[in-house]
Specification:
By secondary structure, the chain is an alpha+beta fold. The chain has 11 helices and 8 strands. It folds into 2 domains: 50 residues; 216 residues, Transferase(Phosphotransferase), domain 1. Helices cover 35% and strands 14% of the residues. The strands form 3 sheets. The protein has a 4-stranded antiparallel beta sheet with strand order 1-2-3-4, with no helix packed on it. A two-stranded antiparallel sheet has the order 5-8. It has a two-stranded antiparallel sheet with strand order 6-7. A hairpin with a 5-residue loop joins strand 1 and strand 2.
Length: 307
């Protein structure tokens, strides 16, 4: 298959078996590489753009129910991209370190990103055979970013994507750079383990109370007692989520215990420690992005990250 940026006439084979021919480059951005194309197949026009694995499946499921609407353009097919299994552990770690350096640079200037997720971490890469070499990593989509002086927080705002946002954002309580750190910790799990830990089933994701199912996972994986009590104090008793969180915590027991990330012994101990420090439910207890960069797990590789 052709490599990006695609030129007019390049052909791409989709997962459906359909062959697409690039007709026009609609948006071309090379640093970082992020292009949008118009393609044709079987007498129809299509838009080709990048989506991350996991997010693609999520959007495909979400959009399926409205695919027949003539006034909506929905996801219809997938094209093979960089296969995560072909990206080495060292490269993934380097990618995370570089992205985290970008986040730390924002936070050093008291800027909260407010929408940390895999789609907003862009890569430049080169492909040699089946091997992908990442040459640049950048955090993008700063449109929702805000300057928050020390001690100031966003309130009454629902920031970020539901699969990556922090518990305080779900509660519309005080949000800031600590909230970015939580989201980045969840992204780390996805990059290293290919696991979207808050991805619930479609029937739980669609309802207006999807928070119930996703926050239950927050508590299951990251709800250690000190952090949980700290979160309750952070959002305050007058916040309706104070009661919601207590009720959700009460659904765990001997028959259905929590599954703390700290006990996932098939995962590297250093990585578990790093993520655990980033995803404490209490925002006040989380490490900063700068502190995360100094964590021994990143130092193990001896890699300063890609540019």
């Amino acid at each position: 298959m052709a490599t990006e940026p695609f030129t007019q006439g390049a052909t791409l084979c989709g997962q459906s078996g359909r062959t697409y021919t690039i007709q026009e480059v609609l948006t071309e951005r090379r640093k970082p590489l992020l292009c949008v194309y118009r393609a044709s197949a079987e007498g129809q026009n299509f838009i080709v753009k990048n989506m991350i694995p996991g997010e693609y499946e999520y959007q495909q499921d979400l959009q399926k129910s409205v695919a027949s609407c003539p006034n909506l353009r929905t996801v219809v097919d997938g094209l093979p991209g960089p296969d995560q299994k072909n990206v080495s552990v060292a490269t993934r770690k380097s990618m995370l370190k570089s992205a985290l350096a970008g986040l730390a640079a924002l936070h050093e200037r008291n800027i909260a990103h407010n929408d940390i997720k895999p789609n907003n971490i862009l890569l430049d890469y080169e492909k040699t055979g089946e091997t992908f070499t990442v040459t640049k990593v950048q955090i993008s989509d700063l449109e929702d970013s805000v300057i928050l002086p020390p001690g100031k927080y966003l309130r009454e705002a629902l920031c970020g994507n539901q699969l990556w946002r922090s518990p305080e954002s779900w509660a519309r309580a005080g949000q800031g750079t600590q909230s970015d750190v939580f989201s980045f910790g969840v992204v780390c799990i996805f990059v290293m383990l290919n696991n979207m830990v808050f991805r619930v089933c479609d029937s739980e994701l669609a309802p207006s109370d999807s928070w119930r199912y996703i926050l239950r996972r927050h508590i299951s994986f990251f709800g250690e007692e000190d952090g949980f009590q700290g979160l309750l104090q952070w959002i305050g008793e007058k916040n309706p989520f104070h009661k919601h969180l207590i009720e959700l915590a009460g659904t765990f027991g001997a028959a259905e215990p929590r599954k703390p990330f700290a006990t996932w012994h098939f995962v590297d101990a250093g990585f578990r420690d790093l993520v655990g420090r980033m995803t404490v439910l209490d925002p006040a207890m989380r490490i900063t992005a700068a502190q995360a960069l100094e964590h021994p797990w990143f130092a193990e590789s001896g890699d300063k990250g890609v540019l």
